[in-house]
Amino acid sequence: MNEILKAPRAYDTEVLWQKDKDHFIHPFTDFSVFHEQGCDLITGSEGIHVEDSHGNRFIDGIAGLWCVNVGHGRSEIAQAMAEQATRMAYFSTFNNLSNAPAAELAAKLAELAPAHLNHVFYSCGGSAANDATIRLVHYYFNRLGKPNKKRILSRRNAYHGTTYLAASLTGIESNNWDFDTLDHLVTHLSEANCYRRPEGMSESEYCDHLVKELEDTIERIGADNIAAFIAEPIMGAGGVLMAPKGYHKRMQAVCRAHDILYIADEVVTGFGRLGHFFASEAMFDTQPDIINVAKGLSSGYAPLGATLISDELYEVLGTPQRKGGVLSTGFTYSGHPVSCAAALKNIEIMQRESICDNVREVGPYLEERLKTLAHHATVGDVRGSHFMLCIENVADKTTKKLLPVEARVGDRIAFEAQQRGLIVRPVGHLNIVSPPLIWDRGVVDRVVETLDESLAATTATLK
Ligand code: PLP
After folding, report:
1. Looking at the DSSP assignment, which residues form a beta bridge with residue 50?
2. DSSP H stretches of helix in 144-262
3. Which of 168, 103, 159 has the alpha carbon at shortest distance from 126?
4. What ipTM was predicted for this assembly?
5. How many Å lie between the centroid of ligand 1 and the Cα of residue 75?
6. What are the TM regions of this chain, as residue ranges (predicted)?
7. 284: CA distance to ligand 1 center in Å?
8. Could you tell me the pTM of the whole model?
9. Per-residue pLDDT tens for 26-44?
10. Whose CA is closest to 152, among 210, 248, 229, 233?
11. For the packed helices 441-462 and 355-371, what is the interaxial angle rounded to 10 degrees?
12. Which strand (E) or helix (H) includes residue 33?
């Protein structure tokens, strides 16, 4: 146990809840329920566990929010951040100013990424990385004298964040209820979802069908008006949706043929979750023009996002468009030294402890064990890959019909699991399992046992 956890701090939960309720606008929260229920204060964390203000301990089955990849309570990362904050907490990186961690990290990312991605644009998280990317892509085509190439192809049920542009790319309908989106910039294609593919279609026919939709869309809109296609290698928040085999490679080939850039949003799939620092090339045989990462890049110890850009694009972005011109985009905190120091230490730990190897070894076991839960009445599908998995609950396994929303099946399973010491994430009728990448087989067995009991308890109350 680290020194800080050895000295427990008392929290006045009631007082804190009141302050929170009165003043903190939580993201993605239903305040009508929240005001009645109050919130859970997470006050401690170490390794694979988190602890609440009442001293209850839970196995973290969601790595915070798909991000604490090396696990909690790593004093080494805290130490690296403290050292950097003490030495030089912040200075601008505009123009020719830089700092050591930002430079070191950019070089490290170029070393880890596919060979043609050698240039890094920093932001503060995944939404900002996606947002900045679209601006850069538009700028790139403007510079090439192709100002009509503006439209971005995204997919229904994709999640790319919540800045205005990133939310517009996002294809989860309910996420944008009552919000506005930049519809003139984005066209959504179908999601790639093998489980819910059209009845009677084989996986390879389904792949043909999705590729044809892309080709038809390009023909309809015109390649001259389309700048890029953006995709998560496996869709995360949309429900860990698995594309048919070969989908990404074929989609990229069509994009290439039409001078459409291919952007991989690896905010979740990157940094080890699928057993590689970058999944695009290693697992999906694609060579994106741009890859975005965040979350696991710093394992959540500090906010950080990065856009990895190809040599080809950089050649255009890197030269001023006119005398006195500069690439006028970036943030106060682009290349923040404390965040970059956290990311460097995080990567050092991942390499030293061979964390990607652990994911490649334990991930398939987690998937295999979770699949044993398919006998439960509500479990229609268990899917995903390595440490990015999901259970889809249904009312009827044959028709795949969903339970009514009021049944709140995902919430109920998550509640039962939490009562038994495990946190999994409910998203509607789904339960997502996306743990820190340090789970071993013993932990997997405990987790699956807990989920088994939680599913049984939930099913009993649904009758
Ligand atoms: N892209 C993907 C694939 C994500 O899953 C997320 C967040 O969950 C984002 C982008 C947005 O990242 P952030 O919440 O750091 O802005």
Report:
1. 45, 58
2. 164-169, 203-221, 247-257
3. 159
4. 0.99
5. 26
6. none
7. 20
8. 0.97
9. 999 988 888 887 778 999 9
10. 229
11. 30
12. helix 31-37
